[in-house]
Amino acid sequence: MSTDLNIQDINGNTPLHVAVDQDSYDAIKFLLESGVNTRILNNKKQAVLHLATELNKVPILLILLQYKDMIDILQGGEHGRTALHIAAIYDFDECARILVKDFGASLKRACSNGYYPIHDAAKNASSKTMEVFLQFGESIGCSREEMISLFAAEGNLPLHSAVHGGDFKAVELCLKSGAKISTQQFDLSTPVHLACSQGALDIVRLMFNLQPSEKLVCLNSTDAQKMTPLHCAAMFDRCDVVQYLIDEGADLNVLDKEKRSPLLLAASRGGWKTVLTLVRNKANILLKDINRRNILHLLVLNGGGHIKEFAEEVAAVFLGENLINLGACINLKNNSNESPLHLAARYGRYNTVKKLLSSERGSFIINESDGEGLTPLHIASKEGHLRVVQLLLNRGSLLHRDHNGRNPLHLAAMSGYTNTMVHLNSVHSHLLDQVDKDGNTALHLATMENKPKAICLLLSLNCKLLYNCMDLSAIDYAIYYKFPEAALAMVTHNTRGTEIMSLRSDKHPCVTLALVASMPRVFESVQDKSITKANCKKDSKSFYIKYNFSCLQCLRIYPEINEKTGDATAISKPIPLPALNVLLHTELERNLPKFLLEKVDKMEIYEYPNECKGKLGFLDLVIRKWFCNPFTEDAIDMVLESNGNDVFTDEIDKLKRKLNEIQIHLDHQFMFLRLIVHKMDIKTETDERDEGTSSNKELQFAPHLSKTFSPLVRHRFLTTKQTNKSKSSL
Description:
repeat; ANK repeat; Transient receptor potential cation channel subfamily A member 1; Ankyrin_rpt-contain_sf; Serine Threonine Protein Phosphatase 5, Tetratricopeptide repeat
C-alpha cells in the first residue's frame, strides 16, 4: 500500500514541514531520500527552506544542503520573499552565510515589494547579516559601494532603510561601506531628512562625523515640499536635533513650498520647545507664510486646552504606563502582521496611540507596515480618524506607499473622509496627483467607490484629470459602473464640470453620448445647469432666459460617422438614419453663405418671455431669436407689436407636429425595409458592377427603362435580353 508523503494537514504543512519544526533529523533525511516535494508552501506561504530559516535551524539547513538539487533556493514565499530575505529580516547571520555561500542564494533577487535582502537587513537593523552580505559580495567581485547602492522600489538605498530601522550599527556599517548621506529618494529626501524627522540625534551625528564633506550639502538640500532637514526636525518638535543642526550651520530662515520658516512650521504644529529654541537662536519672527500669517497668528490658533481632553489624557497615561513599565513588548505582531499601534490606529484610540508613540521605541514603530504594507497613518486615514492622523503626522509618520502603491490620501478618498483628506492635503499637497501601481489617482479611487463628497473636494482642490494605465479617466469609471452620484458630482461641478465633459477616451469618445445612453437623468442635470436667468424681476421686460448648448457638442464624433457612412457597402449592418442626417446637415452648412451661417449658428439663445410679439406672428418669433441682438432696444423696436395669441402660429405648430409624426413613421418604415434587404441579401445593379465601369453601355439596350423602372427591374430585363440573344445566335 503506497503512502502519499506530500500530504498536507489543516495548516498546509507536509510531513517534511513537521519534521523540520520538531528537529526530527532522521525523518528529514528519510523524507528527502524518498523524493518528497520540497517546494510545497503551507498556509503561511512557507516552503521547507523558509521554515528552517525562520526558526534559525542551522543543523537542518546543513541537512538540506546535502540534497541541494531538490531545493529551489530562489523560491518566493509571502510577498515573494526568499529564504535569504527571511534571514535578513530576523538577523540570522549563520543562516544567511549558509544560504549565500553553500546554497548560492542571490543577493540581487528582489521580493514582490521591490526590496533586496540587503534592504530588509538594513530596515530591520540586522547589522550582522548585513556584514555577511557585504563580505560575500566582496568575495565574488562585487564591491561594497555597489552593494550599498542598490535602489529599492521607492528609490530607497540600504542607508535609508537602516535609518528607518533606527539601528546605529547598521547605519554605521552602511556609511563605512561607501553609502552617501546626500543620496535622495524619489521624493528628494535624504537619509538626514529621515533621521531628523525621527529625532535620531545620534544617527545624525554619526552621519556628519563620518562624512563631513557632505554635511553642508545635506543641510541645504530640500525634498519635494522644499523642506530642509531643519524643517523636518522642527515639524516634529525635535528640539535637541534642531539645536544640533543650528550649531552645524543650518539656515534658520529658509522657506519651504508654503513659505514657512522652521519657526512658523513649529508654531503651526504646536512644537513649543522648538519654537523657544529657534527664538533663542534669533530666528526671524517677522516672517509670514503663504497665508500672510506670522508666528503670533499661529500661536493663537494652536494655543489653549480643554479640561475633558486633559482628564482623558491623564487616565490613558496611567492605564497604559503600568503595562509598558512592567516590560510589555509594544512591537509584537499578530497573524495579520499588525502591531498594537496598527490596531489602535484602526479603532481611533487616540490616547493609546499617543502613549505608544511616547515610549522608548515609539519613533521606530511609527512607520512599521502590516501584511498589506499599511502603516498606522494609512490605517487611520482609511478609517477617517482625523485626530489620530494629526498625531501621527506631528510625531514623524512618513508617507510610505502600501503594496498597491497607494498613499494615505488615496485611502482616505476611497473611504470618503473629506476632513482627513483636507488635512493630508494641507500638510503634504504633493499627494494630490500621485498615482498607484495601476496609474489611478485619488479621483479615480473615489469614483470607483462612489464617494461624491470626496470627488467634489478633489475637484475643488484643483486635482489633475489624469488617465490611468488603461487610458481611462475618472468619468469613464463612473459611466462604466453606472454610479449616478459620482457622475453627477463631476459633470455638475461649478468650476470643473465643463473640463470633465470634454474628456475623451477609447471607451467613451464622447462623455455627452455616454451619459445620454447610460445615465440620462445625470445629463438632464447638466442641461439644467445650462439654463440661466437674468438677475432682475421676472415681470421686467429686460428679464431673459439664456440657453447654452455647449454640453451638446460632440465634435469628434462627426469625422468618425462620416468615415463610417462614406461607403455603404463597407458596413455589414444597416446604416442608421441619424448618421445620414448628420451628413446632410454638414453639407448644407458648407453651401450656406458665411454671414447667414453666423446669424443662425449660435452657442447661446436668449429668450425674453415678457416681450410683446409683433404682427408677423411666428415669423416675428424666428426673426427675434436668430437675427436680433438681445441687448439692443433698436432691434426689438424693428418688429411691430401684436396680440399674444396668433391663430396662424398655432396652426403652423400643429402642422409641424403632424409632419414630424409622419417623418418618424417614414423613418421607421425605411429602416425596416433596409433590414429586410440586408437579411435577404438582395443586391442592386450597382453592387453587381465592377469598379470603374459605367452604366451607359448597358442602358443603351433599353433607354426607355431608365426612368420608368427601378434598377432591379432594369437589371432583370437586361439579363433576360442577353440570354435570348445568346439562344438566337445558337
